[in-house]
């Protein structure tokens, strides 16, 4: 009975070794890459162009808000200096004017921030789509099996971030 199991055990070990050898051969053909998405979104030429575009797009509204803020500070300063000498009706009118200016300023500031956030998100989505396209092109061209974007550790040898940044800058 003992002799009848021995060939089965040897056969099982042989099959296990064959499976391990074929697995290690398959793993040797497995090509993996890594990209740092945060760095791409921060350092690529496309990201910098998007930031400049947004800054230019909202510059006039930012300037208008700065003027309103300056006007409010001047009006408040005038009110504080002349509060005792101004007639009651004029002082009340200036206080209402200041309150209205503050409300308008806060409303415009809130609207500006909302619009900036919306446009920033639109540009971010567009940039992510372009980055994904570049990453896919690299993966197909160089026959990568897997490209990951988050890892605890990634060797420089498999880091494709610089190539993606360069490709985005060229487009």
Layout of strands and helices, then pairs:
Blueprint: H1 2-28, E1 32-34, H2 37-43, H3 45-82, H4 88-141, E2 146-148, H5 161-170
Parallel strand pairs: 1-2
Helix pairs in contact: 2-3, 2-5, 3-4, 4-5
Q: How would you characterize this protein structure?
A:
This protein is mainly α. It has a single domain (29-170), classed as Skp domain (Protein Binding, DinI Protein, Chain A), CATH 3.30.910.20. The chain has helices at 2-28, 37-43, 45-82, 88-141, 161-170, and strands at residues 32-34, 146-148. A two-stranded parallel ribbon has the order 1-2. It is elongated and about 115 Å long.
Notable traits:
single chain, 171 residues, mainly alpha, Protein Binding, DinI Protein, Chain A, 5 helices, 80% helix, elongated
